[in-house]
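Support case: adenosine monophosphate complex. Customer-provided input:
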Amino acid sequence: MTFNDLGIIEPILRALEQEGYTRPTPIQEQAVPILLSGKDLLGVAQTGTGKTAAFAVPILQHIYNDRQSQGRQRKIKALVVTPTRELAIQIGESFTAYGKFTGIRNTVVFGGVKQGKQIQALRNGVEVLIATPGRLLDLMNQGYISLKDIEFAVLDEADHMLDMGFIHDIRKIIAKLPSKRQSLFFSATMPKDIVELSLKILGNFERVTVSLGQATAEKVEQAVYFVSKSNKVNLLIYLLKEQSGRSVLVFSRTKHGANKIVKKLAQAAINAAAIHGNKSQTARQKALGDFKYGNLKVLIATDIAARGIDVDDLSLVVNFDLPNVPETYVHRIGRTGRASASGIAISFCDKDERPYLRDIEKLINQKVPRIPEHPFIEEVQEERISQRNQGPQKHKNQNRSRNRNKSRNSNYRGKNSRHRGNNNRNKPRGRD
Ligand code: AMP
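Agent response - structure generated as follows:
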């Protein structure tokens, strides 16, 4: 299946080609025909599946085709509501990239910054508006935005929107949308309140479900380091020194933790920055920009702040803390190994986090390879026992101790250098 087979028009095909997209991702394959036919869509999918193009391309195509028969004045035809500024910016960039040969303009509005520039961009005229809920309502109330010409309404990351307390804002926005419109609703999960919300927005819809879990986990090379809480920072420093020059995104569960990591890295002469909700918008954007363009090699992020990170050659993700929600793990590792590339994700796991690891392995239906030797290893009773119970593993352990010195220098170095020393070392030990 190619984009051409999906009936996409030439100016957009050309842009996709320039983006380096050779094949549609599963969600694009399924959603594009539904959306081109004008039906509503319920997409159960998360960031990393290629869902932005799945909705942006058909919307651009509709607007492009309709524009031939309409006047020259630009009206806001499409509205995308998304929970965070980072995501909003990223979606705006995607519309710009896919629509670069269509002449269709977009702009992004979000809170935390002065509104002057956003108002100016709206005045200049756009067909596509990407917005976070609060600022959108604010500008609507001030009379700068009208939704009366909206023909396409997208609610993105609905579950996060609700988690972040936007339900009332969303209801107000929906109430202002024209009844004749095409509606798109995306959510990674579908608990009861999300189902209810989706029914308020969608008319005659089709559902597309794409599981990122297994697909992502299969294309990202993973490894876990057993390490005590107190040694995590030392292990990180050790690995970053090995990986120097590479763009590394480090996930921390808490904002405070992220700041602490930055400080400790600075003491080891490693330049890093943190992005999280307590940082000013300017500081976050600067750090993101520096990271994206390679001026900053190490970025420490909390999960929410990392949602909009879209860096082309992000080859390594480090889970400094394992998330207690297994889907978050999949989401994090999906930051590397984007739609068609492959990447590496390594995780630090202390004693308290072992249950999280088990949940993650259940979700992705595979065992994350363990790094059996590294300078900060925390002894893993349970692992040793389970190995002793597996006949062939005993043999491997013998090999391992024979290769001990060798393996000290052969810790995880990335996809082209795995399995130095004992070839079996980093391989999954089968499913349990
Ligand atoms: P999204 O889920 O929309 O955030 O997309 C995840 C990543 O996949 C983004 O970095 C996109 O640029 C990239 N992407 C989307 N569609 C394709 C495709 N068909 N081929 C290659 N990369 C893609």
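The chain is about 40% helix and 15% strand.

Case will auto-close in a few days if no follow-up is received.
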